[in-house]
Structure formats: structure tokens, C-alpha cells
Amino acid sequence: MHRKPLPAEYFDEHGTNIEMRWDSVDPDAELTPQSRLFIRNHSATPDIDVRDYRLAIFGDGLAQPRDGLDDAVRLSLDELKAMGSVTIRSLLECTGNGRIFFEWQQGQRQTETPWKMGSAGALDLTGVRLADVLERVGLDPQAREVMATGLDGSYVVDGRDYGTPRRPLPIEKALDDAMLVWAMNGEDLLPDHGYPLRLFVPGWVGIASIKWLGSLEVSTRRLTSPWNTIWYRMSGGDYPADTEPLTTLPVRSALELPWDEEVHPEATSDGRRLLLTGRSWSGEGPIARVEVSVDRGTSWSDADLAPEEARQAWTQWSWEWAEPAAGRQEVWVRATDVHGRTQPLETPLNAYGYCFDAVVRHPVTVAG
Ligand SMILES: Nc1nc2c(c(=O)[nH]1)N[C@H]1C(S)=C(S)[C@@H](COP(=O)(O)O)O[C@H]1N2
Ligand SMILES: [Mo]
To answer: What is the C-alpha to C-alpha distance for residues 123 and 105, in angstroms, rounded to an integer?
Structure first.
């Protein structure tokens, strides 16, 4: 099902989906090593031999329309690499990150993967701009959408086969900053993370970044798949029936602490101190402010943020808790991005538990 080792001190397992443990994160490292990155698999990690690998590109949105897979342009990894190479620092995050807090904080039962905050990572991603590849292949000016399809198996739920994970990307985003990625943090992709090639869509919900990319259909029509009509759009709760597919990730934060365990303040000449570290992020741009509350939201104080040049993916921060009282307490963290989007105290419910962005009430027991 998975290929990389998944030691219990680094990961919590939820079936095919594997969550990074925040208490295992190295506070000195901005990036998430691939060996520590969460895995979100609809089925199993496939075995792909790069020598046989070809990306198929077809559709009526090409300058010279191509009917289907049989008629597709086929590009090897070496051919793609020859089309250019850029590296960006960005975030990969599952739309359902934090889902379990709908249940734990808001009493709303969830049935999908019960992520805490560990389905996120910061990475250096290397690949070719999708715009450069499409320009090379030749694009029709009427092109409207690009359907990315994986090479993993069918997704089957309750006996119903939904086919291979695939999701259409609007041409504007495809031509803006989407990339075809073959390396993360300077290393080839690991099998679990899409080897040999994945799509990467900066700032967007993780499902947009299709792994083990098999084909791209470029269409002059609007395309659909269950991953933009049933899942990964808001439904249920107070949402209307006609919401658009989800795009940008919300604002979220995590503490580099174990969940609901004992923490030990340091005895200093200034009294007892507990240094809290963590990270905050947003799909829309850098974080501008992080506040911490240890009195359940009555008062907030500003955390110290990493310098601005170190806020391309997530923003690392620290805050010193002076004289923490012994006993069970909660640490609340609220981040605001450069566009003024901030974390609310509650997230309106939606059917699949997407985009939980409310302030997480992180329990700790301060040692006496
Ligand atoms: N082919 C394929 N692509 C996929 C998925 C998948 O199951 N199959 N899962 C998606 C989801 S929901 C997420 S959050 C990210 C997770 O990427 P990762 O497993 O490399 O962390 O991959 C996306 N791309
Ligand atoms: Mo996801």
C-alpha cells in the first residue's frame, strides 16, 4: 500500500492515509523531508518504471486536436526535463486537514479521514512550468480546462468504482503557476509522493496536485470528475447546491507539541518558562501575524515570526509562556495572512469536513 517506512514516532496511520506527527517536527528545519511527509492515497502507491514512463497529452484544446489516449503526444521524463526547470518553495496540504476538530471542538461527527493538523508539509518543488509544456505542445486559444489523471488504481467506495483519481484545472491556473514536478527538496520524488512525475498547483487544495501523472486532457469545454463535483467542493450544512470546486487553501496553524500530553516548563532566573514553537500557513500568501492565547481566547499576545524572506511556504513562530500554571490548559493559536484572512473560532460545517480553519484548542498538561 505504501513504500516508505512509517515509524510510529513520526506518523499516525489512518488506513491508506498517513499523518505527520507535529511533535516529531524538527523546529530548526523549515522544510518537511519527504521521508516525514504525510501521504494521502485513494488506493495504493503504484510501481512505475521511469524507462517506460510517458506523459500523454491530448484533447480538443490543443492547437492540433488529438482525440484521446491513442492519439496523444507522449513525453518521456527526459523530454520534459529538457523543457525547463524551476524550483519553488511551497506547501502541500490536504483539504481535509484538521477534520477531526469538527468533531472534537464542534461536536459534528466525521466519517472521512480523521486528520489532526498533520496532513501538511513545506517543500522545495522542482519541475517544469505547465505553461511551458503546453506552449511547446501547442495550445488552442479556446482551451478552457486541463484534466490531470493519475496512474494509480481505481477509487472504490461501497462497491462503487469512481475510476482513477483525476481533477480538472482551469486553464488560467494551469498557465499561471502550475508545475510538473519530478523532485522535492532536491531529490527524486519518492514512490508514495508521485514518482516519477506529479502535478503541483501552488496554494491549492492537495487533490489538485495529482500524483503519478499519467495524462493531461486539454479541453475547450468545462470538464468534470467526481473530485470536483462530489468531493472537494463545499456541500451540506448551510452551503447552497451550486458551489464551485474548492481551490485555495485556508489559513491554519499547528503547535510543535504532542497532543494532550505533559509538558515541562524550564526553571530560569526569571521563573518558569515554556517556549512554544509552531507554524502557520495560508494558501493565499505569507502569514502576517500569529497570536497565542492561554486563557481560552480572553487575551491574545503576538508570537515572534520568522523573517519575511522565510515565509514563502509556512511561517515558523515562537512564543514564550511565562509562569504557566500547573495542570490541564489549552493553547490557542490564531494566524492572519497578508490579505487579512484570519482564523475564526468556529468553522461552518460542510458534508465532508473540508477546510477546518478555526483556532485549534490544543490541550497540554503543564507539569508542576
Ligand atoms: N493520483 C493520485 N493523486 C493524488 C491523490 C491520489 O490518491 N492519487 N491524492 C491527492 C490528495 S487528496 C492529496 S492531499 C495529495 C497528497 O500528496 P502526498 O500523498 O504526496 O502528500 O495528493 C493528491 N494527488
Ligand atoms: Mo487531500
So the answer is: 30
